[in-house]
Amino acid sequence: MVARVQPDRKQLPLVLLRLLCLLPTGLPVRSVDFNRGTDNITVRQGDTAILRCVVEDKNSKVAWLNRSGIIFAGHDKWSLDPRVELEKRHSLEYSLRIQKVDVYDEGSYTCSVQTQHEPKTSQVYLIVQVPPKISNISSDVTVNEGSNVTLVCMANGRPEPVITWRHLTPTGREFEGEEEYLEILGITREQSGKYECKAANEVSSADVKQVKVTVNYPPTITESKSNEATTGRKASLKCEASAVPAPDFEWYRDDTRINNANGLEIKSTEGQSSLTVTNVTEEHYGNYTCVAANNLGVTNASLVLFRPGSVRGINGSISLAVPLWLLAASLLCLLSKC
Ligand SMILES: *[C@@H]1O[C@H](CO)[C@@H](O)[C@H](O)[C@H]1NC(C)=O
Ligand SMILES: *[C@@H]1O[C@H](CO)[C@@H](O)[C@H](O)[C@H]1NC(C)=O
Ligand SMILES: *[C@@H]1O[C@H](CO)[C@@H](O)[C@H](O)[C@H]1NC(C)=O
Ligand SMILES: *[C@@H]1O[C@H](CO)[C@@H](O)[C@H](O)[C@H]1NC(C)=O
Ligand SMILES: *[C@@H]1O[C@H](CO)[C@@H](O)[C@H](O)[C@H]1NC(C)=O
Ligand SMILES: *[C@@H]1O[C@H](CO)[C@@H](O)[C@H](O)[C@H]1NC(C)=O
Ligand SMILES: *[C@@H]1O[C@H](CO)[C@@H](O)[C@H](O)[C@H]1NC(C)=O
């Protein structure tokens, strides 16, 4: 039985010659293709592909070929690839099984059948799909506000994955139609945060990775509160600043730097600072300065610790409630040394 189906050694070269004539380009094959046009078989990378071929007469001379040559001639395996086998579930079946399909297997395969009169070929085109996979993404970056930033995200997959970018925090903005490169010109502090790159094709769920963009900017004082203080009591002044990296704080009384001593206590946490006077006396009343600094800049705000009921407004400046005539009067008074 086996011997009967073995290809006839004497006739083999002739068969092969005819087969090889059909080989390299698509066009000649088509012209002798009596079956319907090329079928596509789509297989995911790593899966097993079965390329079907059925002969009408089990004595036909049959062969499987691809662009690079003969894979099987009858039962003789020409290919050295261990992943390739014949699949014969019945005597007329002459299907080709390729295990662990990889991208280089993609291409057209021809089942060639030599009947008594004429050769018949049926061609299948093996399409190998690969799930999307991000191969390279920018590492986390730290830039100064106003810089131009380019993020890159590269992905492999078949079909070629579509890459989209999204700003996760805080804007949630999608960048439509962007590709591997996301260019942010003149970046602002609001544009800092996590950016997500998504690579998607129809093969499987998308691959997603993130990049963190840190935008450095100099401090601005967002809140500084003057405060009323009663002698013999505790009182504090508070100052808040926004900056990246987080600011360092210093406190000044007029032009003198204040240290943690003599009943004064400075406490600074990320973005805010407080100056506490543990036991207020007359000499504590007056003008204080909160200075916030990071490596990009320094800024300050002036705060006042004032007597209960004094004219100082809560925001540290002279209250608008003070009538203008009173100011003029005190100025006149100063000048005339009254
Ligand atoms: C095979 O796939 C190609 C694109 O990859 C397509 O143009 C063609 O129509 C497909 N043929 C069949 C028979 O599905
Ligand atoms: C042709 O088949 C051989 C053996 O299976 C394989 O190694 C090669 O990658 C195939 N070439 C093409 C173009 O499909
Ligand atoms: C990733 O992309 C960067 C920038 O294009 C490049 O310098 C780096 O070599 C790439 N790394 C890999 C593993 O491809
Ligand atoms: C950012 O890019 C724009 C346009 O390409 C250019 O004009 C500008 O000088 C760049 N700015 C910086 C800080 O490199
Ligand atoms: C605050 O200071 C005054 C004057 O030095 C002193 O008499 C008083 O006992 C102090 N109060 C507290 C709570 O330490
Ligand atoms: C407090 O001092 C700062 C400088 O140290 C000055 O600019 C500001 O005008 C002063 N404020 C008042 C109310 O005196
Ligand atoms: C506060 O800032 C002003 C200019 O903005 C500067 O002249 C002054 O010296 C600063 N004060 C302190 C205590 O740093």
- Quaternary structure state of the chains depicted: single chain
Largest sheet: 8 strands, mixed
Strand content: over 45%
CA gyration radius, whole angstroms: 41 Å
Instruction: Identify the CATH homologous superfamily of the largest domain.
Output: Immunoglobulins
Share of helix, binned: under 10%
Report, as a whole number of angstroms, the end-to-end distance. Answer: 132 Å
CATH fold-level topology of the largest domain: Immunoglobulin-like
Number of helices in the DSSP assignment: 4
CATH class of the largest domain: Mainly Beta
**Shape assignment:** rod-shaped
What is the topological layout?
Layout: H1 2-5, H2 12-21, H3 26-31, E1 39-44, E2 49-51, E3 61-66, E4 69-73, E5 76-77, E6 84-87, E7 95-98, E8 107-114, E9 119-137, E10 141-144, E11 149-158, E12 162-167, E13 174-175, E14 181-184, E15 193-200, E16 207-225, E17 227-228, E18 235-244, E19 248-253, E20 256-257, E21 264-269, E22 272-277, E23 286-294, E24 297-306, H4 324-335
Parallel strand pairs: 1-9, 10-16, 17-24
Antiparallel strand pairs: 2-7, 3-4, 3-8, 4-5, 6-7, 8-9, 9-11, 11-14, 12-13, 12-15, 15-16, 16-18, 18-22, 19-20, 19-23, 21-22, 23-24
Bound molecules: 2-acetamido-2-deoxy-beta-D-glucopyranose (7 copies).
Keywords: Cell adhesion, Cell membrane, Disulfide bond, Glycoprotein, GPI-anchor, Immunoglobulin domain, Lipoprotein, Membrane, Repeat, Signal, Transmembrane, Transmembrane helix
Pfam families: I-set, Ig_3
Subcellular location: Cell membrane
